[in-house]
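Shipment paperwork, digital attachment
Item: protein structure file
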Amino acid sequence: MVQQFVRVRGVAAPLPLANVDTDMIIPARFMKALTRGGLGRHLFQELRFAADGSERADFILNHPAGRSAQILIADRNFGCGSSREHAVWALDDFGIRCVIAPSFGDIFASNARKNGLLLIRLPEEVCARLSAEIELSQYRPVEVDLAAQEIRLASGEVIGFAIDADDQRVLMEGLDDIGRTLRHADAIARFERAA
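Attachment content:
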């Protein structure tokens, strides 16, 4: 089981970079851990920190509001590159529950679904407008309601989004691949008895 996603209200952090690959999300040198915990401290390592380890003041997740971000507004092709599931784990460990972007890498999207990370696809111009609105509101909380398929901004604006019905159900029920299989335990047991 993974954490259920029904509704999240929190800070949204704009990250207007296209083609953010999984190595940028979590560099390979930090993937030696045997557990998921602790990967968030290396999330966007090269963007967040200078070579001497000091924080880059201009990176959104180092901004006072961005440190507690639960929603990330990205640009097209977010999560492209290698198939490392650690990228999703690092986002989750940092506290990111939802990424909004025009498009995502296919394998990253599959890993996100398996780990309870909501991905919302919106047109580029909507993502850009959403980022601008969040900055104008000085990072006031945004609500993402998966059941209603709505994003609610501090201004009162509501932006609808569409999501695959199966993805929505899996996220709302907090099912990973094992959980999805166990939903069919009775049918599996009947099949085994008949074999």
